[in-house]
Fold each of these.
Amino acid sequence: MARTRPSNPNEKRRRAKSKLHRVQPSPSKRREHTPTELLAEATTFLHTGDPESALPLALRAFVLSESNSSAKSDSQAVTHTLPSLSAINLLAEINIELGDPDAARHYFLQAVALDPDLKIPEAEGGGAEKFLWLAQLCEEGGEESVRWFERGAEVLRRDIASAEEMGLTGEVVEDKKRKLVGALCGIVEVYMTDLSYVPFSLSDAYSSLFHLTHIPHLSHSPQCQKARAKALFLRPRLDPLAETHCLTRINKALALLPKSPAPHQTHASVLISQRLLPAARTALRTCLSLWRALPPSHPDVPDFPARISLVRLLLEVGMEKDALSVVDGVVSGDEECVEGWYLGGWGLWILGDKKRRNEARVDDDEEIIDDENDDGEKLEHKKGEEEGESGRNDGEGHDWTGRWQDSLQWLRTCLQLYDQLDYEDERLRHHALELVQAIETEFAANGVEVEGNEEEGGGGGEWESGDEAGEGKGDGDQVMG
């Protein structure tokens, strides 16, 4: 289900210029390409980030395949459905890249109709891919998504068993196992949302209690501190039936690929819903350890959407430093990732708030951060232990105002991109504005000058580690702030 790389505008301009100087063959020398040749050329365009050029070639291949099929007898027509099936699958993938999910869903459903018994090999247009896509594209969601995931998982299990019987090993088998793990994790996500409880936004939880912690003379009261701690643990619990389905699939995924980060991340999400926060942190540490040192092109490195989800999970369990490290890599790879800038600004706000509370409760030169989990368990981190879950140094000289200055930059960048890109997530925008207003109000009350205030919309420079502030920019693997 991996998506192809987005098209590069500079590369597209280069190709357009090249076409202007290309010598066209004379009409007498032209010949009609076969469907197979057209599909190969369209696939090349798609994989190099040019779905616009791929679309007419794939359509032509489909038309030729249909014409060839109609000209044959019924017994011969079955053979000629195979190029049609490959063309339909390719047309669906092209429309995904072009941002037309309705057209993609239409083509994938056609592909399913041509392979009702799941007997056509993947090389000839069969396989699990169409089912895995339909699980994500279906309009109803819920049980229908689960059914499509299960059909895809059935094909993958059969292919894996067949390969193992033949003694095959290597990346082809591992890739099928990754897809099967993805299908199992996809089912878990459906049970945690559509089939368990109403989808819940963590930002809503924090935002709903945010104003309580900024009432003068009350922000450090036990009542508000408890509300602040509870804000991160308002995710509804799984109902028993959904919990059983989730655990069954997660255990299968972990048994299949125990060294893949994906099932550990999904397992952490389930554990959070079960209120098993220490176990969730352990699962998230394992997830991070399995891909952080890998090269970016490695198949086990999560894609951008998975990393955004990971950042949210890390923030939910109080692993802010790791969350910021991950989100730095996201915005380094996609500078227009609105949600990445928002989560980075939010994470820095949380770290600055913790430091602000520490300074108000210094006792015998020992800083304490007290939080409570949903079951009332005290979570205490002494000075030196609150170094972040990754074990990286926070920079002792970086006080709460510095954290919030950085938070302002990133939140302003988020809001600027939100308007420029016509982004649609009003709750995200509302929470980002709320955070900005709270920081500016606190700075005004404490006589702190807002850095970069002359820039409209904010700049959003890169994160800096506390030890390197003012000396250099952080990279994707560095803790920010």
Note: The chain has a mean pLDDT of 77.
Amino acid sequence: MYTNGLDMKSKEIACFSYDDTHHFHLDERSLRYYYPPRIGANLSEGFDTFQQLDDAADDHLDSLLKTIINLERRTGAKCQANIITWRGMMTKIMATPFDTFNGVQCYKFETISLLPAPWAETSRDYIESREDLTVSNSAQYCSVVKTGIGESKLILGGEVDALWDTKPPDPSSPINWVELKTAATPLSDRDILKYERKLLKFWIQSFLLGVPKIIVGFRSKEGVLQSLEELETAQIPRLVKAKGKGSWDGNVCINFTAVFLDCMVTSCDFIVLGWGACGVLCSLVTNAYWELDRAKCDDYRGWWDLADTEEGEGAGG
């Protein structure tokens, strides 16, 4: 069993952005900074003008793979891995032992909690007018991190909401990311249990990308923001175990995922969880992969050879 598995090991190695029209860029243009929203803000307002991302055209793994290719070309070194996928795929795997509840994100809460630049560089007018901004989920900053679970090494790609302060000048230093979540204010034991189950995915999502802090906005039934709670990601499993109702156990999630990934890695030389531009899909049923169009893979030689490593590494997002 991986008893020390609750320690976060993720380290950012690259990033990319989607702009307001959801076009891909190899830069930080969609990076945002956290600044507390006004208590009393109505999170239900603005959805009549909500600009929802049209996800009918699946992005697959293209953006993640392009970022890895760019990193390899810049550094001249392979990003060695066993598994490549998005954080969302890994979240589903890790939550499997206790997956009886699904949460909902509130884009309005994100909109009124974010700044386009550090606080000192942002005007007071912008800060105070955030509640009037159009809500949209098209622009995203995505972090690509190197991590590991059990014996499997991974490279994960996933969206992060904001910075608590600024990125450290030393790339090897931890980044003070912030994840923003919403939940109904618990009013009964049943509500408390419901919130505790929500914390499972809150924790997994932040754990996988190495996000140290989660800020939860509690809202009324009418959608009015009533309070904020700051949670240290590393402490959530301990809080649930010590003070909660014990509806889930972080170590069980880690151990299940470690065994699951180890089984895949020993059965496959190289695993891509999801579709990529080159048309490669790993089958967990037959433990094999199919090349649908190898000609399209010419530009992906950098990651195609990831299996050619000493120990192997994995990627997820």
Note: The first strand starts at residue 11 and ends at 18.
Amino acid sequence: MSSVAAIIPDDPQAPGDRGEQEPLLGRPGDAAQPKGMGIQYNFILGTAILAQIGIWILAAIIWASVFSHKLIFFSAHPLLNSAGLLLVTQGILVLQPTHTPSQKYIGTHIHSILNNVGVLALIGGLVVIEYNKISHNGEHFRNTHAILGLATASLMVVQSVVGGTQYFLPQLYGGEANAKKIYKYHRLSGYAVLILAFATVAAATTTDYNRDVLHIQLWAVVLASIVTLLGVLPRIKKQKIGL
């Protein structure tokens, strides 16, 4: 996240702004929100359309598999987790192209709302599976999916807390200047956790419940995840991660 108080020229062609607008793939400005364009277009700007295709296909695969069977209490687990991942992805996409103070202000608030709701959904998914395990005297965190799921949910909570306090409560870090120093690490860890979340979904295809009931294919999850990341990662701004 970037503070609205940052001194960033409003003119997208200003020399001081060019570096911040250069994405990992493409030319400066390719993944930047144009002046006068509504923030809603950030969800499909540039390679974001790939991310939308990938994440919605992944969600559709999971939802179709769940709703094609009788709904039980456990059904909420994949539904909440997939919804959480969908919302977190949208939270990333809406903020990435912002570069002027007003864009960052609006983008950060939407980013915060989407991420926080997404994290709450992920926590809900974790609560469902834990309650289900307890009620059936099942083993906890006995497979790769369970371990990755706990790690993902925990790191998402940390991301949400650190990101929110950095922007809205910079005094906790000794002031805005100090809070800004760790923005880069918040961004980098956020992308790493996103990749971990997709790995968690892929690992879910190896669970007994998926093999016996849902029958979600690993190749479909991996393909949808790769397409999503191909839409998200190229829009990373080099300057914002210290490159």
Note: Residues 1-16 have pLDDT under 50 and may be disordered.
